[in-house]
Specification:
With 114 residues, the protein is of the alpha+beta class. It has one domain. The protein contains 2 helices and 3 strands. A 3-stranded antiparallel beta sheet has the order 1-2-3, with helices on one face. Strand 2 and strand 3 form a beta hairpin. It is rod-shaped, with a radius of gyration of 24 Å. Bound molecules: zinc ion (ZN). The site of zinc ion has 5 residues, from loops.
């Protein structure tokens, strides 16, 4: 038994919906690592060669046209990395849902015309 393109799309949409519901905690942005120099005279960060302070971890993101960043403690790194990954997965799934929904809509619009 063959299924119609519409039935196939409906199945795929249900699958994407379930995958979206399963996405865990998330946050947008990207992680970067920084090493800093301080103002203390004779500090190791000004030695030759310099031993700069850090690493410091920072997550940068843009929301509603506004860019900001936030420092992340080392012990929170794993959780934040997972949240960033989940955000990317959600975006991929939303794109897929939009593509499938558009194809389904186009199909229905075409079928209704006959
Ligand atoms: Zn220093």
């Amino acid at each position: 038994m063959t299924i119609s393109r519409e039935q196939l799309l409906l199945r795929q949409i249900e699958k994407v919906k379930a995958q979206l519901a399963a996405v865990g905690d998330l946050r947008p942005g990207s992680l970067s690592t920084q090493y800093n120099v301080c103002g203390t005279p004779g500090c190791r960060c000004k030695a030759t060669p310099p031993k700069k302070h850090g690493p410091y971890y920072q997550v940068s993101f843009t929301r509603k046209g506004k860019s900001s960043s936030k420092f992340v403690r080392k012990e929170d790194l794993a959780a934040v990395r997972q949240e960033l990954k989940n955000y990317e997965r959600m975006k991929t799934l939303v794109d897929r849902r939009i593509d499938l929904a558009t194809e389904l809509s186009n199909l229905r619009l075409a079928n209704n015309r006959t």
